[in-house]
Amino acid sequence: MKLFYKLLPVIFIFSSLSFMEPDISAQKFEGEILFKNKTGLNVDYTRYFVKGCLVRVESLNHKKEVISYYIINTSNTESDFVNPHQKIYKHETKRRKLPVPENQNFSISKTGNSKQINGQKCHQWIVLNREKETKVMYWLSDSGVNCFGDIMAILNSTERTAYYYLQIPKSNSRNIFPLEIEEFSLTRERRITITLEQMKKKKLNASFFEVPKGYKIIH
Question: Which of the listed CATH numbers 3.40.50.150, 2.50.20.10, 3.30.565.10, 2.20.70.10 matches domain 24-217?
Answer without folding.
Answer: 2.50.20.10
